[in-house]
Amino acid sequence: MKKVAIVGYAQHPILKNAGALNEVELIMPVVHQLFNDLGISQKDIDFTCSGSCDYLQGAAFAFVEGLSAIQTHPPIKESHVEMDAAWAMYESMLKIQMGDAETALIYGFGKSSPGDLDAIISLQMDPYYISPLWPDRVSLAALQARVLLDQNIITPEQMLATVIEARANSKNNKNALITDLIDESNYLNNAMVSSPLNQLDCPPISDGSSAMIIASEEKAYEFTDHPIWIEGIDHRIESSNLGSRNLATSKTLQASMNQLNFKNIKFDVAELHTQFSHELPFLKSLLNLQDIPVNLSGGPLVGNVMMCAGLDAIGKTYEALKENQFTHGLAHATSGPCLQHNMLVHLEAQK
Amino acid sequence: MIQAGVIGVGQTKYDAKRRDVSMAGLVREAIDNAMLAADLEWDAIDAVILGKAPDMFEGVIMPELYLADAIGAVGKPVLRVHTAGSVGGSTAVIAASHVCSGQFKTVLTVTFEKQSESNATWALSPRYPYSPHINAGAGGYFAPFIREYIRRYEAPEHIGWKVAVKDRQNALKNPLAHLHIPGIDEKMVSDTPMLWEPLRYLESCPSSDGACAMVITAQDQVGSRNVAWIKGMAVRSEGTLSAGRDEVNPQAGIDCAKDIYNQAGIQNPFNEIDCAEIYVPFSWYEPMWLENLGFCDLGEGWKLTDKDATAIDGELPFNMSGGVLSSNPIGASGMIRFGEAALQVMGLAEDHQVEDAKVAMGHAYGGAAQFFAMWIVSSSLD
Questions:
Q1: A-chain residues within 8 Å CB-CB of B59?
Q2: What CATH architecture is B4-119+206-376?
Q3: How confident is the model over B338-342, as a mean pLDDT?
């Protein structure tokens, strides 16, 4: 199997409301930062792939507008997934493995501030039977939180600790949106949004963008002496029918763990795309990550750019491996209600 | 590189309103047909790649989530592609990339649109924040490019009518086609109302419900199956408003075609390609793409159309299935081109089969004529 490495990652400061900044103005700074860091231009990129969601922009071809952020004359090999940009990275990796590209640029962008995210995300459900009930994203997440609490898989204290720790970890993340610290009384005095989730258990509405460059083994060393390798990657989806899923576990995550040979890997650090506070202790337990630092960046609770947050988990793991003495990192990206679709990425730094 | 081939193509009946099925039922109809054609069980499928045009066409966001069960993806990897009108083609290319990467043996790919759930021209005319609103739809957007083509090469107006008639006559040989218009002729076309000068009503594609699916597998999984081997595949994009861009003859289309011809070892596409399914949503795009894809010199495309070179019994048959002009479930329209090209070289195109078709081309484009996906399929691996 052809080896693929991450050689660069850049993230726009996460904004509460980007206002009139459009897709192009959000994407250009991160792409150009990457190009400047690596001393390259779009001409050095063989394949470009983006992730975004039209509905966030309220327009049918938001990604077409986004393409104006990069140089496309002469024409480029390019594609787009209507998914988190983590899956754009996945597609790009396949292109490198098949030999169609040596380098790939990935970017994701999302502006949740202009619309009503609860209403928008409810349109992910079955359009005939479920969406007409307008199930909002917090209520759907709360279903899973309630199952996990009732079955003693997680505790309310773990949810509280997750929120406090995310705020504390935001000091490690120069792009975090939420940086103010809280204590137990702040948390307990917060009103419920959808029981058992209160406002602080939920991610902030966020605007922003991120970009990443990956490369084949031969090319990676032209960019850096210390590439971070994608050692393993696996993603799987669960049923759309919440009633037919066991929300207290994840069969697909377990299958991905087997596929990636988790038994034989000692992870040093992890970044999980856990948007709600109950999801972090749940996945820590499921993925056997109790003893290592998880979400040192603060994770989605301190900034959650839709269509980017999964790519950001990969990017933050990459940064943690680059900046610390860690060897094995785990990144997780998710899509859909109640962790329906999950990707696990095993990154490795060669010391 | 690992060689990949198509071993099953499945389509739905195309119609203006498929009220008999849900979105899930629609995609499953195409998938069941593809799985039957490939003679495979579900456990042979390693990943599912779903493509469709904007989510606003049905009002379902990221429909791979809702459709996970219907497309047989539960427990498997699924990828959702959206590259505007070219998406059916680029989805096929990405599905084949899954196999060619060596990560997957056999994948299922499906594309669909259920246009009756919404209004395409509304969804195609977005009101972008902080931008002027262009309420054009697709025809209104492409008509100026077509007028410029006609001006450059002094093409006579009956060329558009001729393509409209030829593709609808082909559709009469394809029971799945949405439009069946017996007795269609140039007079009937030229009598229909002008929609976007010079495009008349019958020179425009319909709005359709439908889905198309394919099973793509690696060489070592083929066994004794009938295969359409993928000899070349590529995508290209260019920006909507790049300086120097020629919307009539986009560089991205030229580059993409050259790429697949090189991969397939084709020197003279007009002579070496037996038939092609080319994305022609408005009649005039047939001569425009004949030139853009290198089948003839600039300004010669309309002359090839005029002398029936693209008829089903012509030198280079175009859109034997009836094309986008006869069935247009937008997100699937590109994959139908790719799948119909595969059916031709597999000898499975029934009444619209081109005799002895060995090498065929599938083509899709989208956006403001800026996104391209193409492939060459062949009956033999050599």
A1: 123, 127
A2: 3-Layer(aba) Sandwich (3.40)
A3: 98
